[in-house]
């Protein structure tokens, strides 16, 4: 069974930029800034001063240091991202990043086709493969341009995270995962024709609700009645509706949408770390992520009996 051993973050990096100051990076006007605050509770977005290589390299080094043998055992590094054009892939950017962290003998891969759901999709793949080799899931992106820094239902943040799987005793075990695609809506909403955009708005919430309900039904025997729901930092009105639908008013842990924003693929790990820091005693958490495309992904984690290190 796949174990989650460590989440590496840079807690002291970055700056929370008020929404009113995001005109250049996120293409906001004074009116749209007020709209994001009013409807989605967004007051600031976390941005990093360093470039993408340094931003990701800092958490990758921490992840490698957490491994019992500091990465000597061969493993796999997977960079999960939303943007398809944000790295110099033609210059072996990811390979060089891994080599600089002492992982020259590790395989490297990137996953972007499932957008912001990619980190949980990666966990689903790893769990399905049944591999016991160490894996580092790297997430976090620079918001290079307003076209990829602003969504209709949220604003994108720059938060690097490196999650270590199967790297020694784990604090969490992956009990179950699931992924669902709605292939009709593979085009970004801004580029859809009016008919598809209208259809997406009509089916998105019901399909997401059905996806979660199906997961809960399929894994009912393994569920702890006191599990805690940990959603992504996106579309707070819809998230609130899901919480009400499943009666999780007292059984959820929301990320800091107000001050951080939506951190691309980093949301699940960022919010899980915040849940751990809260010291709530729940034995299970249900992570949720969604990506344009459309992809829904979920992961049920259960605490291990080893001392907590995540």
Report what the structure shows.
Residues 228-302 form the Beta-ketoacyl-[acyl-carrier-protein] synthase III C-terminal domain. GO terms for molecular function: acyltransferase activity. Keywords: Plasmid, Transferase. The protein is α+β, with helices and mostly antiparallel strands and 310 residues long. It has two domains: 3-165, 3-Layer(aba) Sandwich (Peroxisomal Thiolase, Chain A, domain 1); 172-303, Thiolase/Chalcone synthase (Peroxisomal Thiolase, Chain A, domain 1, 3-Layer(aba) Sandwich). Helix content is 34%, strand content 22%. The chain has helices at residues 23-26, 30-40, 52-66, 93-100, 118-129, 146-149, 194-218, 236-245, 257-260, 267-278; strands spanning 3-9, 15-18, 44-47, 76-80, 107-111, 135-139, 150-151, 154-155, 161-165, 172-181, 228-230, 284-291, 295-303. It has a nine-stranded mixed β-sheet with strand order 5-4-6-9-1-10-13-12-11, sandwiched between helices. The chain has a two-stranded antiparallel sheet with strand order 2-3. The chain has a two-stranded antiparallel ribbon with strand order 7-8. The longest helix has 25 residues, at 194-218. The relative contact order is 0.20.
Gross geometry: globular
Task: Give the low-pLDDT segments.
Answer: none
Q: Round the mean pLDDT to the nearest integer and report it.
A: 92
Backbone structural class: alpha+beta
In terms of DSSP E residues, the strand content is 15-25%
The structural domain count equals 2
Regarding CATH, which class of the largest domain?
Alpha Beta
**In what order do the strands lie side by side in the largest sheet?**
5-4-6-9-1-10-13-12-11
Write the CATH architecture name of the largest domain.
Answer: 3-Layer(aba) Sandwich
Please, what is the CATH homologous superfamily of the largest domain?
Thiolase/Chalcone synthase
- SSE order: EEHHEHEHEHEHEEEEHEHHHEE
Record field, number of beta strands: 13
Rg result: 19 Å
GO molecular function, one term: acyltransferase activity
InterPro entries: ACP_syn_III_C, Thiolase-like
Protein name: Beta-ketoacyl-[acyl-carrier-protein] synthase III C-terminal domain-containing protein
Keywords: Plasmid, Transferase
